[in-house]
Write a structure and sequence with these properties.
This protein has three helices and no strands. It is mainly α. The longest helix is centred in the first third of the chain and has 36 residues. It is rod-shaped, with a radius of gyration of 27 Å. The chain starts with a helix and ends with a helix.
Length: about 90
């Protein structure tokens, strides 16, 4: 091997090391985002509870002076906010 080729080895090792570090950083960030998407148990449980509340409000009879209909609308708004919160967290 020529001395010129031997001088290139440290540069090649540096480039390889930088590539490995960048690859690990990207992989770690992707894994973190994947965990965020898959987790959020409290937000998921909240959404389930809101959907249950909406179901029971829809099953109730009578208008209750308009309060039942207003409650249904508020529950739907809350569901949308929880979903937006989940989506926002998954994107960041």
């Amino acid at each position: 091997m020529s001395s010129r080729s031997l001088r290139r080895i440290p540069l090649l090792l540096l480039v390889l090391a930088i590539g490995v570090v960048l690859g690990l950083a990207v992989s770690s960030g992707t894994a973190q985002r994947r965990r965020n998407v898959e987790q959020q148990p409290h937000m998921r449980l909240s959404l389930d509870a809101l959907r249950s509340a909406e179901h029971h409000l829809n099953e109730a009879t009578g208008d209750k002076g308009g309060h039942r209909v207003r409650a249904i609308n508020l529950v739907r708004q809350a569901e949308a906010e929880v979903q937006r919160g989940i989506a926002w967290d998954n994107a960041h």
